[in-house]
Write a structure and sequence with these properties.
- The structure holds three protein chains of three kinds.
- Chain A is α+β, with helices and mostly antiparallel strands.
- Helices cover about 40% and strands about 20% of the residues of chain A.
- Chain A has three domains: about 5-290, no CATH class; about 300-415, no CATH class; about 425-480, Arc Repressor Mutant, subunit A (Orthogonal Bundle), CATH 1.10.10.410.
- In chain A, strands 6-7-10-1-11-12-13-14 form an eight-stranded mixed sheet. A three-stranded antiparallel sheet of chain A has the order 5-4-15, with no helix packed on it. In chain A, strands 3-16 form a two-stranded antiparallel ribbon.
- In chain A, strand 12 (about 215-220), helix 3 and strand 13 (about 255) form a beta-alpha-beta unit.
- Chain B has a single domain, classed as Amidase signature (AS) domain (Amidase signature (AS) enzymes).
- In chain B, helix 4 (about 105-110) links the parallel strand 2 and strand 3 (about 115-120).
- Chain C has three helices and two strands.
- The chains are: A alpha+beta, B alpha/beta, C mainly alpha.
- At the B-C interface, helix 9, helix 10, helix 11, helix 12 and helix 13 of B face helix 1, helix 2 and strand 2 of C.
- Strand 2 of chain A pairs parallel with strand 1 (about 60-65) of chain C.
């Protein structure tokens, strides 16, 4: 008999992503309901009034096709909507319009990296459906009540189902992160797990050494990466312990408690759902032509993995830097525009500045690149000035901070702050001679053999010039005056 | 002229000539409803204030020279059409207190041309029934014989027109619910091609079968109403994006040379002898008008009824799931949400509706989908093909609307299957999505018989012109029930 | 095709319709009768026949992604048995 630790996890993820359309899936209410007062973003259609009918959002279909293509899915020509029948207060029609039999995309795959190794997971299907309303359960003295808000009802939802190809909580997390990144690159989802615009359900079972797969348990509505990982870790452990003690596992749906860090059983009805799916009679079928697929494919942006590889090759960047630059589409877009803004700054230099100082400013300020006042053009001009010695690197950092916060051209800011570097030999020679005269001890240390002492002397020159001396030139002249160390 | 039995066409002449005002006409109509309806129960809500307001507006439109063929004409809407601010019960206790906050497309189009809304009519609950005995608010009586049914589910609309309580009425037809009551009450009833008229605002029973249509005293009136209500609606994805012909201009098209089919399967045993006699006489009239009459076969006619009783309950099950007490309608007291759902539906829904919801649940439940629902949709394709094949040979079909005349109240309520079988001639047109009209074809035993004319999709102008020619060649549309006598006794 | 009491109870549960004992009995008989009639469908040869996928020839009926006005929350809750004030209120959900 296999020891429980020899059971390997078999994990699949079902991700629900709210689409960034302007209107809802089947009506023209605004899809963005954040901060709206209850039931103020509804209409007869999304609140299930008698006699109302759905009408499909064209952009949602486009986004579905786009996502399916990005996930290497096949786009069948025939696609349609179905009714999924069940009762719950947040489901206004008593059925959800979804895609069961003919989803928009099937049989794809996605790659993700874990500890430097690239893995591939299968995508079983991508389909479109409508979100439900929100129920809040409230304990009241007269009895518990449920309050229902239909603002979210009808918001377009895309469901992405993975094959059970993930074999560890880390892999599940990495898969989810890679998927999220693609969805954000495509602009179809805002990646916000906290607010629930991106949600994950996981299913996990254990496979014995002989290859037998055990009972599958589903854990629903995990709203952070940490929750995905921790819930899986807990559940795998729970299942192993159960098998060890000979306990039979139930095929069930469980929830995850953040506070207690456990999964718990959720049994809302005594019997399993029978969804009685049938084709949605109010919506004619979709015929997705090859032209449409080609058009959508044409509009696809460069995806993260491809861009990362290209940055390494084209710009001779390290994988780490390429990774930082491509973690969000906006960063990579900014970087490339800066590279293409001129010819005098090496791409590697621009990469250093973007991944270093600029990213630090983004993190500290809480403002994204787009929200900041700096542009790829002004960054490139700044770096050109540093490269030509017009200003020192240190001065450059100052200018960067200003441009990030207030915008403006680097030339103007340099003039305003008086940061122009002094590089003329005559000026610097005068300074160097003075510094040598005033710093006998340091000079002696240098002459005594300590080559590093020259740094301090350069520093003195910088101080004397209030930072404006060109440190390379200063060092050169010092070396000329003093000769090599130890002489 | 007796205003109460005048057609809209006749009334329009009077209104335009200012010999009659819309307000006078409205008052007379409301008075008649008040006088008669306690015996008929055709109306669930009489909208007197609205009618007078509509009438005044209509008179203004006419004075400005902006009146159309239906401006100022009284109309009643089956209580399954959503009307803002006016109760819309669908004949069900579960919606007895429901007052919509939006108006559906058809109701809006009719209001926009200046019709005068006199009330919402009684109906079989959620349009499920063939006798109007399934209403949560009591049955409707046939003006021709108060002990008999008017037919259903648009029994209220049909009775109201037949009794002169309104000039025009709107009904809905899912398995015959306009044509069959039209036949039982001696009025004209049209089921348009599926998709010809928008369903936005029509409380759904069976989404792939429901259609809205007129019940009127003349074919011209039905054509005029169709012109107003037909046409594409972006709010209904199943509505057809096809131009709407000026149906009233096409009514005079001659019958001579048209090929008319008589489906042999519609003349089997079980049909009342008197009904058969009237229908065959009607066919002779068309022969006399120069039509080429020939027999055709629609071999899947018996199975069509079975497909109807699989597909319509399945769609109804889903369409009625929303009546759970949460958002509108009555709510039974209970301690938790699941009990609320169960109790509300237990007390709010009638026996026929429950029966059909359960039937629908059964045919869609795990393990039965392929054998019932999927198979029914395949047989439906065969039913459609039967009509396509027939229409390749003929321009329209002539048939009885129903096997019998109006039956007695209570006669068929103990056996649902008996009730379902009376839909046998009307259901196939819904399954195939084609158009059909029932036009009065005389009386037998003092009760109306309907002639059904079926046409291919979007061929309303063909069936309406045939019906119009028939109407002109006969006197049947002028026959009225002797109501005052009945009421007095 | 006969429908048992258990089946009626099961489908009534799925459909959220509470039924009394008498009703269950009656419905079992009635539904059995109807299903027997419907069963003739099974005998029709539908080899190679496509199910009717839509009652109209429409395909790809799509609406542009244009947001429009919603109705006021007053309209949404106007017909609710209980609402507080702009949320629908129902007895608690037992999970």
């Amino acid at each position: 008999m296999t020891a429980a630790t020899e059971f390997m996890p078999v994990i699949g993820l079902e991700v629900h992503a709210q689409l960034t359309t302007r209107s809802k899936m089947f009506c023209s209410c605004r899809a963005d309901y954040a901060g709206a007062s209850p039931n103020s973003h509804t209409c007869p259609i999304c609140s299930g009034m008698p006699g109302a009918l759905p009408a499909v959002n064209a952009r949602a279909i486009e986004m579905g096709i786009l996502t399916a293509l990005a996930l290497n899915c096949r786009i069948p020509e025939a696609s349609r909507f179905d009714r999924k029948n069940y009762s719950y207060p947040d489901l206004p029609k008593g059925y959800q319009i979804t895609q069961y039999a003919e989803p928009i995309g099937e049989d794809g795959w996605i790659e993700f990296t874990l500890d430097g190794v690239t893995h591939r997971a299968g995508i079983v299907r991508v389909h479109l459906e409508e979100d439900t309303g929100k129920s809040t359960h409230v304990s009241a003295p007269g009895g518990d009540v449920t309050l229902v808000d239909y603002n979210r009802s009808g918001v377009p939802l895309m469901e992405i189902v993975s094959a059970p190809d993930l074999d560890s909580p880390d892999a599940a997390r990495a898969y989810f992160a890679a998927l999220r990144q693609i969805l954000m690159y495509l602009g179809v989802n805002d990646g916000n797990l906290q607010e629930g615009s991106l949600r994950a359900d996981v299913n996990v079972s254990l496979r014995s050494a002989e290859g037998e797969i055990g009972t599958k348990v589903e854990i629903k509505n995990l709203n952070s990466f940490r929750a995905v990982q921790r819930a899986l870790e807990y559940e795998i452990d729970r299942q192993r312990r159960a098998l060890d003690s000979g306990e039979r596992l139930q095929q069930e749906t469980r929830g995850w408690s953040e506070t207690e860090e456990v999964t718990f059983s959720q049994r809302s009805k005594e019997f399993a759902h029978d969804y009685r799916y049938f084709p949605e009679p109010d919506l004619p079928p979709l015929r997705v032509s090859q032209e449409t697929v080609d058009e959508v494919r044409h509009s696809m942006p460069e995806l993260p993995a491809t861009r990362e590889r290209r940055f390494v090759e084209e710009y001779a960047l390290s994988p780490y830097q390429a990774g930082v630059l491509t973690s969000e589409r906006e960063t990579g877009d900014f970087y490339e525009r800066a590279v293409r803004a001129g010819t005098r700054v090496p791409p590697a230099t621009i990469a250093n500045w973007v991944t270093g100082d600029l990213m630090r400013l983004v993190n500290e300020s809480g403002k994204s690149l787009a929200q900041s006042a700096i542009t790829p053009g002004t960054l490139e001009s700044l770096l050109t000035m540093i490269g030509s010695g017009e200003i020192s690197g240190a001065a450059g950092k100052q200018v960067l901070v200003r441009m990030f916060a207030d915008g403006g051209e680097p030339q103007t800011i340099v003039d305003e702050l008086g940061l122009r570097q002094v590089s003329g030999r005559d000026d610097i020679e005068t300074l160097v001679d003075r510094v040598i005269a005033d710093n006998e001890k340091l000079v002696a240390t240098y002459r005594g053999g300590k080559g590093n002492a020259i740094q301090a002397l350069v520093g003195r020159v910088m101080g004397a010039s209030r930072g404006r001396a060109n440190p390379q030139v200063a060092r050169q002249i010092l070396e000329e005056r003093l000769g090599p160390p130890g002489s | 002229m007796d205003l109460h039995y005048a057609s809209a066409h006749e009334l329009a002449t009077l209104l335009t000539a200012r010999e009659l005002s819309a307000e006078e006409l409205a008052r007379a109509t409301l008075e008649r409803i008040e006088h008669l309806d306690r015996n008929l129960a055709a109306f669930l809500t009489v909208t007197a204030d609205r009618a007078l307001a509509d009438a005044r507006r209509a008179d203004e439109m006419i004075a400005r020279g902006q009146g159309g063929p239906l401006t100022g004409i009284p109309i009643a809407l089956k209580d399954i059409l959503s009307t803002e601010g006016l109760p819309t019960t669908c004949g069900s206790r579960i919606l007895e207190n429901y007052v919509p906050r939006y108006t559906g497309t058809v109701a809006a189009r009719l209001a926009a041309v200046g019709t005068v809304l006199v009330g919402k009519t009684n109906m079989d609950e959620f349009a499920m029934g063939s006798s109007n005995e399934n209403s949560g608010f009591g049955p409707v009586r046939n003006p021709w014989d108060l002990n008999r049914v008017p037919g259903g589910s648009s029994g209220g609309s049909a009775a109201a027109v037949a009794a002169g309580e309104t000039t025009l009425a709107i009904g809905t037809d899912t398995g015959g619910s306009i044509r069959q009551p039209a036949s039982f009450t001696g009025v004209v009833g049209l089921k348009p091609t599926y998709g010809r008229v928008s369903r936005y605002g029509l409380v759904a029973f069976a989404s792939s079968l429901d259609q809205i249509g007129p019940l009127t005293r003349s074919v011209w009136d039905a054509a005029a109403v169709l012109e107003v209500i037909a046409g594409h609606d972006p709010l209904d994805s199943t509505s057809l994006d096809e131009t709407v012909p000026a149906y009233t201009d096409l009514l005079e098209r001659p019958v001579n040379g048209l090929r008319l089919g008589v489906p042999i399967e519609y003349f089997q045993e079980g049909m009342d002898a008197g009904v058969e006699r009237q229908v065959r006489a009607a066919i002779d009239i068309f022969r006399g008008l120069g039509a080429d009459i020939r027999e055709v076969s629609l071999p899947h006619t018996p199975e069509a009824l079975s497909t109807y009783y699989v597909i319509s309950p399945a769609e109804a099950m889903a369409n009625l799931a929303r009546y759970d007490g949460v958002r509108y309608g009555i709510r039974a007291p209970a301690d938790d949400i699941w009990s609320t759902f169960k109790e509300t539906r237990e007390v709010g829904l009638g026996a026929e509706v429950k029966r059909r919801i359960l039937l629908g649940t059964y045919v869609l439940s795990a393990g039965y989908y392929d054998a019932y629902y999927l198979q029914a949709q395949k047989v439906r394709t065969l039913v459609r093909r039967d009509f396509d094949n027939a229409f390749a040979e003929v321009d329209a079909l002539l048939a009885p609307t129903t096997p019998t005349t109006a039956f007695r109240l209570g006669e068929r309520t103990s056996d649902p299957l008996q009730m379902y079988l009376s839909d046998v001639y009307t259901v196939p047109a819904n399954m195939a999505g084609i158009c059909g009209v029932s036009v009065p074809a005389g009386l037998t035993d003092g009760r109306p018989v309907g002639l059904q004319i079926l046409g291919p999709p979007l061929a309303e102008e063909v069936i309406l012109s045939l019906a119009h020619n028939f109407e002109q060649a006969t006197d049947f549309s002028r026959l009225h029930p002797q109501l005052e006598t009945e009421v007095a006794s | 095709m006969s429908v048992s009491r258990d089946t009626v109870e099961h489908i009534a549960r799925l459909a959220y319709i509470g039924l009394g004992t008498e009703e269950i009995e009656r419905l079992a008989t009635e539904l059995s009768g109807v299903l027997e009639h419907i069963d003739r469908l099974r005998r029709v040869d539908t080899t190679g026949v496509e199910p009717t996928s839509g009652a109209v020839p429409n395909v790809n009926v799509l609406r542009p992604d244009q947001p429009g006005p919603s109705w006021p929350s007053d309209d949404a809750v106007a017909n609710a048995a209980r609402h507080t004030p702009d949320l629908f209120e129902v007895p608690g959900v037992l999970d």
